[in-house]
Amino acid sequence: MIIIVTGTDTGVGKTVATAALAARSGPGTIVVKPVQTGIGTEEPDISVVARLTGCEVAEFTRLEDPLAPDTAARLRGIEIPPISEHTARVRELARTHDPVIVEGAGGILVRLDADGGTLPDLAVELARDHPVQVYVVTRVGLGTLNHTELTVNTLRSRGLEPAGLVLGAVPKALGLAEECNLAELPRVTGVPIVAALPDGVGGLDPEHFQTQVDSFFVRHNTPKPAKCSQRCCAREIDGNTNARSCSVVRT
Length: 251
Fold this sequence. Notes:
Elements: E1 2-7, H1 14-23, E2 30-36, H2 45-53, E3 56-62, H3 69-76, H4 83-94, E4 100-103, H5 119-126, E5 132-138, H6 144-157, E6 164-170, H7 176-189, E7 193-198, H8 206-212
Parallel strand pairs: 1-4, 1-5, 2-3, 2-4, 5-6, 6-7
């Protein structure tokens, strides 16, 4: 299995979502970052995943500036590998690892090479001979409906049906927009919310992160689900949900 983690934008929580998926995937997991930019500005994404999960990781290309990969490479006059090379390397890893989890860079149409190749291009190529699941990491606040629907529609235009939405950095206290978006996101996209990551969870020590990770994922078979207090999004969320905040996060 190859799992692709993309997002509606940069900073939505893809790396922590990738770590959460990896922590639940077993000892054969490897996490891959095809292109990492902004080296030296903060902890690299792949290092965050390794720190939180202890799983094997791989990084193909590193670029200094915190920009989109194509832009960062052109700024420095650096040649970076095409999508076809990334695809070949992921396929090779899939021979000895299951699953291979691939984290994208920025939003879904960010160019990963100098030829305009994007994460959907990578996913389509890999899907020719491997089962592929794609997860979309998104925000829960105002503006997310547009960004998430655009991302989902882009995937579907390439024949890729998202496996689920992951809410990144969900605050403890939800406002009206956040409460309603818990219902609106799956309604407008047709894609279920499968996980919600509490804000700041990436700062947990590895033991606590791994202990709590299962609680971030939504259970769909709870016998007595709660409903949102807001009329606009009255729906069944989860049996352990606090009815006042309508949060799917359980910590």
